[in-house]
Amino acid sequence: MRLRPTLPALAALALLAGCAPTQSAPAAAGGDEQTGTLRVWLFDEASRAPKEAAVKEAAAEFEAAHSGVHVDVQWVPVEGRADKFSGAFNDSSNAPDVAEFGNTDVASYAQTGALSDLSGDLASWPAGKDLLPSVLDTAKANGKTYGLPWYTGVRALYYRTDVFAELGLKPPATLAELADDARKIRAAKPDLYGIATGGKYTYAMLPFVWANGGDVAKQDNGKWTSTVESGAAATGLADYAALLKDDICPPSACANLTGTQSVTAFAGGKAGMVIGGDFNRKAVEQGTVQGKYGIVPLPGTKPGSVAPAFAGGNLLGVFGASKRHGLAVQFAQLLAGPEYQEKMYAAMGNLPTLQSVQKKLAANDPSLKAFVDTLAAGTKFVPAAPGWSKIDSQNVLPTAVQQIATGGKTPAAALSDAAAAMNKNFG
Amino acid sequence: MATLRPRAPGRAVRRDGRAALLYLLPAGILLAAVLVYPIYQLVLISFYDYGQPQAAGAAPLVFLGLDNYAALVSDVQFWTVLAKTVGFAAVCVAGSLVAGTALAVLATRVRALPRMLLFLAALGAWSTPAIAGSYVWLFLFDTDFGLVNEVLSGIGFSGMAHHSWTFGTVGAFGLVAAEVIWCSFPFVLVTMYAGIRAVPGEVLEAAALDGASTWRRTWAIVLPMVRPLLTIATIQSIIWDFKVFTQIYVMTNGGGVAGRNLVLNVYAYQQAFAGQEYGLGSAIGVVMTLLLLSVTGLYVRTQRRAGQEGAAPWR
After folding, report:
1. Which residue has the higher pLDDT, B259 or B7?
2. Which part of the chain is the ABC transmembrane type-1 domain (chain B) (predicted)?
3. B91-100 average pLDDT score
4. Of A23, A86, A255, the CB nearest to B167
């Protein structure tokens, strides 16, 4: 090894070690003022007007009950949320008091230490006992609760009632039957995908893993490790990849579809079935399959069982640096309370997180039944580890499924690569 | 100017230097603020474990030295992606240079109206936002509803009826490369057209009188004279095409099936920035900057040497 070129490099390193990249100061401690402006961040959505109307009503009610308080609502675009929240974490003077965020972001947001632990406030909140435990779990990281579940999103199986009737099929009772039905549909109608299963549709893959009794990772003494390499998880992922075949959903068309694209294919009349969320109903209603579809819970491996669904959803959190902690918690409780959960359902079709509200709504709207039943059967969540968001953004599981589906790698090789990538991110 | 009055040479130089410094100062301050400081921070961050908790000040900084770089070069996928990026960029650069130059030559040979139409079409492609352009191309090449498949199957290529253009590795890269060439050739066209037009007519006339053929005139007069512009167009294209992000991200759904259509920029985004691992992301950024600087540096040097050798076109 030549010494001369390495010397300046070492010198430069030594020099660089002396200085450090900029960091912002740790978030300042908050306060509990009872007047002033309460800043609220909510997600901007495709058709925001009804959501805005419901929130405005809540704000007016809150301002009437608390004199000297003004509620300032800002709309955060979902795609740009990472930048907006990073900004709030880095500079607490720019942070809101209350913010809406997705429950998959909880673990990584918690790591920044910017959010308040709401466990105590939740215990003293009457509506808190009405929350589904599996939904409340999605608001937790390291045993602390960082948000009030505002609404939830679960997926179930959409199927074409006209196609099923024509072919004499019944909604599948097991995942194996689902694959058979899908094969029959494509054989009889070659221009339909048996089931639109996108290779990039993580939240459709996970129920296959959970239905087989497995999970993608396990936690021992606080340390997460991947479990996709073998056992039930490997079976589930292989079952899902088996749907990406020419006789069900050809890989050349389906291997790269995301969840939204899979639902779009179904809504456009190109598929016999799809795994879709309660939040997708509007899109399906507006498609060509309007009035020609039904929804049932995604079946498990045994007849009568339900494949555990992913418990997605949004939370209302309170920033630790908030100068009006008490007011912030009260406003979050108002929005997440039974009255406004129902109003938000009427406005946006968001599935409530409170069991009593769910039951009441399902009694009036039969198409909700499949989703409420899925929730009641028990839902699951992605690993509540900070590394999960990286695993998700690096497409680790979709890549493995795509490799299996296209024959690029054997299942064993693809899954062992996926496990290695997951473990690297869990650290 | 200082040279107008006779003065001791040493003082004049010093005075000149001071004046030059003064003139350069505003630009220098601006460059330091918007270029030097960010690059300094980028390099610095690349030596640390720097994620969102560290940026927010909630976790202590850990100095990693070259660990981020070591993680990068020991990652097999990084090398695959790098090789694919180089190949992809090379095709895009060659494609846009050939298309742009050929059309520039054509533009010098046709009448005003067709030339204007050509320029309008090129400017239209040039001014289309990358995202819009990518989606338009995706619609054209859609598996089930695309115009291209419909036309191809209509004129007898029935095998193309439901052909997926974005599925195969080469097919997807080819489609994206075509889109990139489509939106980057106009720059080459305009540059080269200006260059060819700037070649003095009398020089070409003199050469013709001396009996030089068209081929010979192009090769020995026009090409050396437009070489500086060609150099600029090439460097620009290399830098642009090496950094392609939008087209790959949109047209291949973020890197193709199982990530086989990833290029370096999308890979960096996916590995580092989407997961908020700014340290690793910065390391990729530094590597990319160094690569581009060295490629451009080499190219400029070879061109300068070639330019000096070719300074006398009538050998």
Report:
1. B259
2. 82-299
3. 95
4. A255
pLDDT in tens, A19-43: 777 777 666 677 888 889 999 999 9
Q: Which residues in chain A have Cβ-Cβ distances shorter than 8 Å to B253?
A: 200, 256-258
The residue of chain B with its CA nearest to that of A389 is: B275
pLDDT surpassing 50 at residue B1: no
Q: CB–CB of A112 and B58 under 8 A?
A: yes
pLDDT for A178 beyond 50: yes
Residue A170 makes CB contacts below 8 A (sequence gap 6+) with: A164
Q: Which of A26, A113, A399 sits opposite B258 (nearest CB)?
A: A399
Measured between CA atoms, how close is A253 to chain B, in angstroms?
A: 7
Q: What is the dihedral of CA B213, B214, B215, B217, to 10 degrees?
A: 80
- Interchain proximity B276–A86, CB inside 8 Å: yes
User: What does the pLDDT average to over A298-303?
Assistant: 95
Measure B68 CA to nearest chain A CA, in Å.
13
A-chain residues within 8 Å CB-CB of B277? 390
A416: closest CA of chain B, how far (Å): 15
Cα A280 to Cα A62, A277, A285, A300: the distances in Å are 31, 5, 9, 22
Per-residue pLDDT tens over the stretch B275-313: 778 888 899 989 999 998 888 888 778 777 765 554 444
Q: Tell me: ipTM over 0.90.
A: no
Work out the number of other CB atoms within 10 angstroms of the CB of residue A343: 18
Q: Cα separations (Å) of A81 from A52, A76, A100?
A: 18, 6, 10
Burial readout A165-176 (b: 16 or more C-beta within 10 A, e: otherwise)? eeeebebbebbe
Closest CA to A230 of A214, A242, A245: A214
Kindly report, residue by residue over B26-39, the tens digit of the pLDDT. 999 999 889 889 89
Strand-pair partners of B32? none
pLDDT given at position A209: 96
Chain A residues with at least one Cβ partner in B under 8 Å: 13, 16-17, 19-27, 82, 86, 89-90, 108, 111-114, 199-200, 251-253, 255-258, 270, 389-390, 393-395, 398-399, 402-403, 406, 408, 425
Residue A275, classed as helix, strand or coil, is strand
